[in-house]
Amino acid sequence: MAAQAFRLLIAGEQVGGDRGTYDIVNPATETVVGQAPEASTAQVEAAAEAAADAFPAWSRTTPEERAALLDRAADLLRERMDELIPLVQAETGATMRVAKTMQVPTCIERFRRYARGALEPATIPLPPSEMPTTALAPGGIMGAIAVRQPVGVVACITPYNFPIVNMAGKIGPALAMGNTVVVKPAPQDPLAVTVFGEVLRDAGFPPGVVNVITGSGADAGQALVASEHVDMVSFTGSTPVGRAIGEVAGRDMKRLLLELGGKGAGIVFDDADLATAIGTISSVWAFHSGQICTAPTRVIAQRGVYDQVVAGLQKAAGRLKVGDPLEPDTVVGPLISDVQRSRVEALIAAGVEQGGELVVGGQRPDLATGFYVAPTLIAGCKPDNAAVQQEFFGPVVVVVPFDDEDEAVAVANGTEFGLYDYVFTADTARAMRVARQLRTGNVGINTAQRNHEAPFGGFKMSGVGRDGGSFGLHAYSELQSIVWPG
Ligand code: NAP
Ligand code: MG
Question: If you measure from the C-alpha of residue 213 to the centroid of ligand 2, how many angstroms do you get, rounded to a whole number?
């Protein structure tokens, strides 16, 4: 069987990389899944230019035309699900359950959501306002509307954890709003995104409206962010890279949507339902090996239940099957790469050296291949422990004890991040009081479940701007005011 060729998409043409290809490695088997194109910076620039050329006509299409194309893309994605699920599974190392229920279906849902989004009103009526005569102009009753306009060319740069879901969450609203896009997935697992590009071309998006570039090194993303054709950067990834992008984008006043790192606090009060708290926190291990920015990785447990929380988590961690992501009962798969595993292991070692107590895990499970880290629990941490302050992006939970509510809030707010925190308590008034004091973009009360219509994004170093539902649509727009004498 001939190996499948994965291609870039530039100005409606599927092309190879000018600099050849590089290998994509399956994180569980360490075998090669396929070859990704290695784009040159000239190809990156050509993609950005194609998007700029396509913008005037695309931005004038009707909302109905854009909605129909987004819906068509969702249909084609569904038709190619049987091909996409094993591909995205193999390149991400996700368990079959995560690949089947999350990676591909969520991507389709996002396209459906923003097909509807294209039809949302882009005009905000304002009440007439009485203005006196001034040196500038005669007075009168001034009418006004605010109109949502597309920003222009949007560079969409995504992390490795959920490659096509993250990409769909950017492309969907950006296209619905009338922008054109250049897509740059993470270097570790870009193959399904290239197929996704082909699907969008087949769906009938005009040439240049969607472009896909891939590459193994930092220069593809850097060239894209710096391109004079790019008007906005929508980036999801780590805080240091977000900062670097913000600095470059700021020079040309490029618009930014930055979804960055997190260190989710899970505050467990004495009156909490511990089964719920422990089950929710266990998702750090059980959901994509902790490679998720919103996870409750930093448990802050009140002293009255502290021992029970630690014992409960220890028991839960021991029950999870670690291993081959293709086996249906596997819960914890590998991390994306050897590099990522080394980062996680180094931070575990630092956490223990700084006084954390290794309760469970910390070692590599006994498996022949794969970039695995066993589910790990580090308890008894001081708030300033590196393992409490820094993001693992792996299957590691740390626990810090606290005495009272004020201390819990202070510890929760005591990192540079502010993405997603959780409060576990039976007292609703307390939950709301604490939530309002948390300097974080999202708070889950007794649940890790999400509401996709709610605004999603970070305070502090966790980002700038908001995704989610109509908020995500508006993120890809500029407001224009139009005023007239009534
Ligand atoms: P990453 O190392 O920041 O990389 C993300 C993307 O940025 C990749 O496509 C990367 O490709 C590109 N990139 C790196 N340097 C760049 C530069 N100077 N200019 C332009 N692009 C550049 O993140 P990751 O390791 O893939 O993902 C894990 C991180 O993502 C964690 O910090 C996690 O919290 C965060 N995350 C946040 C959210 C959220 O919604 N807030 C969701 C998921 C993940 P190259 O390296 O090839 O350049
Ligand atoms: Mg990188």
Answer: 15
